Please model this.
Amino acid sequence: LAVGVVNGSELLSDATSVALSAIREEMQRIRNATAISHAEDQYEVDRARDGVSKCDRWVLSDHATNVTRKEDTHGMCRGSEAHLNQLKVVACAEYLAAMRGLRPPDCAGSLEAKAQSSRLAASCLQKTAAWWRSLNGSATDLATSCKEASAAHAGKKRLCD
Model:
C-alpha cells in the first residue's frame, strides 16, 4: 500500500487516511510520554548519584577528621605518659639513692663497746634514735613518692594503650 501510494498507483481511502492519522497521533503521544518518563527517571537517577557522591565526601571527610582528632589525642596521651615516666624515674631514683646511702651514726657500729659506759651508750642510742626517726620520715616520703609516681605512670600507660 505504501509503495503504491508513493508511486501514485494507489489512492488512500478516507477511512485508511483517518486510521493512519490516528496511528500517527497515538505514536506521537507515546513518544512524548516516553520522553517525559525518561526525563523523570533520569532526574531521579542523577539525584541519587549526587546524594551518594555527597555522602562519600561527607563520610570520608568526617572519617579523616575523626582519625586526625584521635591521633592528636593519642599523641598528647603519650606525651603525658612520657612526662609521668620521667617523674617516676626521678622519684624512684631518689628513693633508691637514699636507701643505698644509709649512714648511721659512727657510734652505732661500736655500741657494744660503749655499753660499758652508760653515759656514752645513752648518748649513742639518742643519736641513733634521732637518725632512725629522720630516716623513717624521709624514707617513707620517698617511698610514697616513688609508689605514687609509678601508679600514675602505669594508669596513664593503660589509658594510652
Notes: DSSP finds four helices and no strands in the chain. The helical segments are 2-7, 14-100, 111-114, 118-160.
